[in-house]
Each structure stands twice: as structure tokens, then as C-alpha cells.
Specification:
Layout (H helix, E strand, L loop, with lengths): L7 E4 L1 H4 L10 H6 L1 H7 L3 E4 L3 E2 L11 E5 L6 H13 L3 E6 L3 E3 L3 H8 L11 E2 L15 E4 L4 E4 L6 E3 L5 H16 L4 E4 L19 H9 L8 E5 L5 H8 L8 E3 L18 H18 L4 E2 L9 H4 L7 H13 L4 E5 L20 H10 L5 H11 L31 H6 L4 H14 L1 H5 L1 E7 L3 E7 L3 E8 L4 E2 L6 E5 L7 E2 L4 E7 L1
Parallel strand pairs: 1-2, 1-15, 2-5, 5-11, 11-12, 12-13, 14-15
Antiparallel strand pairs: 3-4, 6-10, 7-9, 8-9, 16-17, 17-18, 18-22, 19-21, 20-22
The structure holds 1-deoxynojirimycin.
The site of 1-deoxynojirimycin has 9 residues, from loops.
Length: 514
């Protein structure tokens, strides 16, 4: 199967489905929802980390790469889950967190026990910080260890120590981790902040000089060269992308880049870039990747981002329309589309009302750092607009809240949940289903070139083109606006009627034989 034939769905296990009622999602819960995912039409899932972890960064602080956290399940249930996905033709990729481990990982416990411990060099230690790098979650990225009188690097939380990829033993260990999961049947990996594994201490924290060599060592091997890999690469520009996923490079299948989602100058801001700007950037990136001959990804959501319908659409009156429009843009784009759990229900931001409702280390650090300088209203508005907990609240399978869940519900569970959506006349899930079916049925949507026809304040129009056919998506970016003349057969719209004008957030899909 070619990468473009895949439609991914990201599962964030802690919040997905809690089968045993202990307040956290689990493997049994995931297994119980496989029919729901199969019916939706996705044929691949990315499972966010559920390895053993103290949970400081919700699983991205791993203390054992080869075991499943007991709150989620165990290795044998996890393998049953992989088999159950495979049995219905759904591929499974896991998160591979290669840049750092938990400070509870046995390697780090050894490393900090003394300067001459053999594991010391698995991490990055300095007598004095060589630069002023900041941790992504606030404060210096260098933490002083009083016992051994040196600083270690942590690009994320203090409890997430960066691995030293210059050490060949670390690289061997990481290859062995990859192989361990491949032997258990997984189909590939989403590689967490992969562009940070090689460091240039005199420059920025990312894109270091040995990045490509390290990636090839992992994924250019006989055993790994044909698996699916997607690197999370915040720093990647056009040239890096060609190097990272050019067909001849032996590195990655594709990358996540974030240009279209980083237009508003910071995560915690209420001054958000418009949908038009995001579409413009998305279209530029699509065109660039096509010119470079690389496979890109297409997405608006993941576990680190606010809900797209709240950020770019209208999560009130036009929630159904704007959620499905954003889905259409992703599912008709070039490359590999990724949906995030709950996006197919048009889930909105959480709208939490008190700081005690937040769980994310990044949000809580931001809150602590800014609570004395920003007004409470301003601080709260910023966290609600950009915070990661927007994406992490419980997946609402029905209207009933679970009191003991590790993170509270958003405000609208009674109204927005899977049971309600599936029986609604205007169901976001059913519209996503139709769009996925369309992608499967139309070669142009998988193989075709990307042609941007128009981006104005009111409309975004693009086509996917092969020698045989041309499929055009016409989108209203919020207002009523005339439909530009588009030849061809009308395939689908998120409104029942297609008139001369597009209605707010309406999309219309046309197909023309070339
Ligand atoms: C990116 C992950 O998506 C995010 O959730 C995590 O906090 C950081 N990497 C650190 O692992």
C-alpha cells in the first residue's frame, strides 16, 4: 500500500476509551472501538505513547520503552490489539520518543548515580550550560544536579532528560527498541521531535549536523527501510524536507510540519491567524512538496493543538459546517491525511472554567510563570485558546460524564458526543465517512497533483489533478459567497442544497474528466 492510500486516525490512549472504569483510557477500550474506526473508513492508526511512564508529560516521559503502562494494559493485551487492528485491515504505528527519556528511566537513574557510571554518557551533561536554551515548557533547558555537580539537558520538562545521540550505544539501544516493536507486528512509527536528536550547541536546539545520519541509522536498515515513518519536525523547511523524506534518502516516509498552524506568533495567544492564512500556507506547502517530489502530511489537529473547529471555524452556529469543511480540506489534500480522535465528531475546545481543571504540564508551567504579570482573564483566555488540554479531554462516546476520569469533560458533552452525532441528521462522523470513501474511490485524491485555484477572504479552492480527472474542492471560509464557475459533476457538499452561492462554511466537490 502506498503512503497516500492511508488515512490515519490518531488515538490518544489516556483519553480515548476507559473499559475498566479506572479513570484512564486503556487497551481494552481501544479494542472495543475498532468497529467504530473501521466504519469511519480509516485504514491506519497512530497510537500516542502508552509505555511505562510516570506521566509527567502524559506518556512522553518514558521509563520503559518495551512495556505498556499498567494503567493502559499490558504487553499481551497490546499485541492482541495490534492483531485486532490488522484483522480488519488497519495498520498501526506507535509513537517513538527518541529525543528524551523520563528521569525515572533506569538509564537515567544509573547515569545520575555517578560521573563514571557507564550510563552517564547516555545523556548530555555539562559543568556549565554551554548556551541559554530554554525548555519548551518554560525555564532553562539545563538542570543542575547537585549530587554530581553538573547540568543535564532537558528540552522539555525537568523530568525528561535528553538522550545523547552522539553516543553509539544510545543509537544501538534505539534501533533495538524499534526492532522490538516491529517484531511484535507494528507497521511503523511517528517519531516525536525527531529533528532534535542531533544537537548543535552553538545554534538552535534542532536540526543538528548529524540529524540525517542518525535517522538513516535507524530507518535506512534492511529491516526498517520499508516501514511507515513520520517525523515530527517543527524546524523543517523545504530543503530539510527533501533531505528527510526524499525517496532516495533512506530516512523517513513523511514529516509533520507546522507552518500552517504557527502563524500566530506563539502558542498561548488569543490573536489567532485566520483560516484564510492557514489555507494559504497549507497550499504553499502542498505545492512545494509536490515540486520537491516528497510526500507531505495533511492535518489540522493532534494532541498538542487546540480543536480546529474552535480555532479556525465556528464552534457555535456553524459547528457541523465548519468541522466538516476542515475535514474536507484535510481529506482532499495531497499526501497522507491525519485525523485526531474526536475531530470526526466536531469536538470543540474544552472551555474549562477553572485552573484546577487543567492537567497539562505545559499549561500549568505557563500559568505559574505568568500568573503574577497577566490579568486572570487574559491568562485564562490565552490558556483556553492554545492549551493542549483542549485536545485531551475524554472522548465523549455518549452524554454521560465519568466522574473519576483523569481530566474533566469539556462543557458540551451532553450536546456533542458520538451517540448524538451518529444519530443526527447532520452528522460530522457520517460526512467524514463520505469524504474518506471519496478519497478511496478517486485516484486523483490520492495520486493527483495539487493545484491551488483561489484563496480570497471568502473562498479557498483547490483541485487534485491527474491526466484522467480533476477533482475540485470549493470552500466558503465563513461567509456566503458566489460559487466560482466550476465545470463537472457535483460529487458532494456538506449542505443539502447547492445553489449559486456558497453558504457559510459550505464546501462543494466537483469532478471533471480531463
Ligand atoms: C511532542 C509531543 O507531541 C508532545 O506532546 C510532547 O510534550 C513533546 N514532543 C515532548 O515529548
Amino acid at each position: 500500500m502506498k503512503p497516500q492510500d492511508l488515512v490515519f486516525y490518531q488515538i490518544y490512549p489516556r483519553s480515548f476509551c476507559d473499559a475498566n472504569g479506572d479513570g484512564e483510557g486503556d487497551v481494552a477500550g481501544i479494542i472495543s472501538k475498532i468497529p467504530y474506526l473501521k466504519d469511519l473508513g480509516v485504514n491506519a492508526v497512530w497510537i500516542s505513547p502508552c509505555f511505562r511512564s510516570p506521566g509527567v508529560d502524559s506518556g512522553y516521559d518514558i521509563s520503559d520503552y518495551r512495556d505498556i503502562d499498567p494503567r493502559t494494559g499490558d504487553l499481551s493485551s497490546f499485541c492482541r490489539m495490534i492483531d485486532a487492528f490488522h484483522a480488519v485491515g488497519i495498520k498501526v504505528i506507535l509513537d517513538f520518543v527518541a529525543n528524551h527519556t523520563s528521569t525515572e528511566h533506569p538509564w537515567f537513574l544509573e547515569a545520575k548515580s555517578s560521573k563514571d557510571n557507564p550510563y552517564r554518557d547516555y545523556y548530555i551533561w555539562r559543568k556549565t550550560p554551554p548556551n541559554d536554551w530554554q525548555s519548551a515548557f518554560g525555564g532553562s533547558a539545563w538542570e543542575y544536579d547537585a549530587a554530581t555537580e553538573e547540568y543535564y539537558l532537558h528540552s522539555y520538562a525537568v523530568e525528561q532528560a535528553d538522550l545523547n545521540w552522539e553516543n553509539p550505544k544510545v543509537r544501538e539501544e534505539m534501533c533495538a527498541v524499534v526492532d522490538f516493536w516491529l517484531d511484535l507486528g507494528v507497521d511503523g512509527f511517528r517519531c516525536d521531535v525527531l529533528d532534535q536528536i542531533s544537537k548543535d550547541f552553538a545554534g538552535q536546539n534542532g536540526n543538528g549536523p548529524r540529524l540525517h545520519e542518525f535517522i538513516r541509522e535507524l530507518f535506512g536498515r534492511e529491516k526498517t527501510k520499508d516501514i511507515f515513518t513520520v517525523g515530527e519536525c517543527w524546524s523543517a523547511d523545504g530543503e530539510n524536507v527533501r533531505q528527510l523524506c526524499g525517496a532516495d534518502r533512506g530516512e523517513l516516509t513523511t514529516v509533520f510540519t507546522f507552518g500552517h498552524l504557527c502563524l500566530d506568533g506563539g502558542k498561548f495567544t488569543t490573536d489567532r491567524a485566520s483560516l484564510k492564512e492557514a489555507c494559504r500556507r497549507l497550499a504553499e506547502w502542498q505545492t512545494l512538496c509536490e515540486t520537491l517530489g516528497v510526500i507531505n502530511t495533511a492535518f489540522f489537529e493532534n494532541h498538542d493543538l487546540p480543536r480546529a473547529v474552535s480555532r479556525f471555524g465556528d464552534d457555535g452556529q456553524y459547528r457541523y459546517e465548519s468541522a466538516t469543511l476542515l475535514g474536507a480540506i484535510v481529506l482532499l489534500s495531497r499526501g497522507v491525511p491525519f485525523l485526531y480522535q474526536g475531530q470526526e465528531l466536531g469536538l470543540t475546545n474544552s472551555h474549562y472554567t477553572d485552573v484546577s481543571m487543567f492537567r497539562d504540564v505545559e499549561i500549568l508551567n505557563y500559568y505559574e510563570t505568568n500568573k503574577d504579570t497577566l490579568s486572570p482573564d487574559e491568562l485564562f483566555a490565552r490558556i483556553c485558546a492554545g492549551g493542549r488540554d483542549n485536545a485531551r479531554r475524554p472522548m465523549p462516546w455518549d452524554e454521560i460524564s465519568q466522574d473519576n476520569f483523569w481530566i474533566p469533560d469539556g462543557t458540551r458533552r451532553a450536546e456533542i458526543n458520538a451517540r448524538a452525532d451518529l444519530s443526527a441528521q447532520r452528522s460530522v462522523y457520517r460526512t467524514f465517512q463520505r469524504l474518506i470513501d471519496l478519497r478511496k474511490a478517486e485516484p486523483a485524491l490520492r495520486e493527483g497533483g495539487f493545484v491551488c485555484r483561489e484563496i480570497t477572504d471568502d473562498r479557498f479552492v483547490f483541485s487534485r489533478v491527474t491526466a484522467e480527472e480533476e477533482i475540485t474542492l470549493v470552500c466558503s471560509l465563513g461567509k456566503s459567497t458566489p460559487i466560482p464557475s466550476c465545470e463537472g459533476e457535483l460529487l458532494f457538499s456538506n449542505y443539502e442544497k447547492v445553489g449559486e452561492d456558497l453558504l457559510p462554511y459550505q464546501f462543494v466537490i466537483f469532478k471533471k474528466r480531463s
